Amino acid sequence: MTTKRPPTPPLSHSIQTALLGALGEADPLGHVLHPAQTVEEHGSIIYHLTSHFESWYAATKSNTILINVANKQMIVTKDPAVYEAVLNAPTAENFDTPEANHVVFGYFLPHSIFIVENEAWARLRQTGLHIVTKQSLDSIPRLVAQTVENLFNTRASSTTWTFEPNDEFPKLTFDIFHHFFYRWQSNAIGNESVSAQHFSDYSTICNALGSRTALPKPWLWRLPLESNHVVDKARESLLAQVAVLIEERRKALAANPDIDLSTLSIADALILEANNGVLTNEELHDTLISFFVGGFDTTTGTLSTMLSHLAKYPQVQDELREALRAAFPRGKEDLAAATPADIAAVDYLVWTVDEAMRLVPAIPGLPRACIKSCTIHGFDIQKGDSILVDSTSAAHDPDNFDGQTDLLDFRPTRYRNATFKPSSSMPFGYGVRSCFGQRYAKTEIQALCAYIVLGWKISRPADLSLVFDQNVAVSTRKGHGTLIWEKIVN
Question: What is the pTM of this model?
Fold first, then answer.
């Protein structure tokens, strides 16, 4: 069988491109010299770079391309025949997480599932998956209702509230997560002192993960800069807080040996696994933090982009509200008392959430590194190549959606009487390393969407363009995500 390297697209002739290859097309110099102006115009470096992919596919007439990124060979693909093999067994064994991920996550969480390999990775994944699968999700609709009401009542001075979701939704999802996973009565929304410190530390670390992944140079992080000091201080503070939580919960569990295991929080279940020798203490600390890191930005980003699309497409919002009212006649009151199964039974809601995650995936690409040369779909992939599964372009490709040509529109009904390949849309990844917290994430996002749409009419300023950006996850770009909530009075 004849093999070949993927084609390389033509680039501009700028000095930055001559020095940095495809990365030069994202104007890294502009991000250094004029960061606010460049981000306002193009978004982050990562987002700016990925915005070129579609034109490069078209220029090469190939759904798999080879680009040079700062002297590193990167294969970018939206072809299911290629990326399914990269992400799934048995050929997935030829690929690993990229070195940049190891360097960046290793700085913060060296014993987490993001870093460990082989037996340790399999053990951590199996343990986490087992615990998450057993966990009842029935409390989530009630938690969502309480937390959304707390947010609105704390912030709004009337029945109408105008706000920037990137300022408010992180605290909303932070409080829901900690109530559910840790049984800790967090109130970041109300700026309670301990919750506020915890939230600040997590936010600092998540922002650092995003910016440092774009430029994974550890020597930069050791420079005597105030920004580095802030990140290191947040890391130490967070580790200390988690250590206190573990000690408190260990004492509580020891004092109640007959506790019903089915009622345990995920944190308590992990602590018991560590007590039984399944996890080391270092793995326990990093796993507790990584559960949150893995879902914080992604859930917040998905909620922001989904509600922005519902505001942009009022007919879809009205149809969704009608479907929800049919299922929950007393509106928010019924929703708060519902089970996750009740909520997931509303087809239009499921379609809406799936469509939002397809149109703007929170994680727009799945990176891998080739650790063993191989041939996939006729392409020669060499050891040392970086691979980026372009999940955003794959989700916008008519070939993956029965030839549909309106894939840049927000149309939930495309899922009515239609079955698409699971790999066509990959908001939680795909294959052997897919997100094992997706059951919780889907339930939370569905409950949030349903409760908010039942309680408020959502709109946007008429003259505001809807533009996105990416740090860790994709969300609305600063200054372009403003939402207006108008309380519905029955």
Answer: 0.94
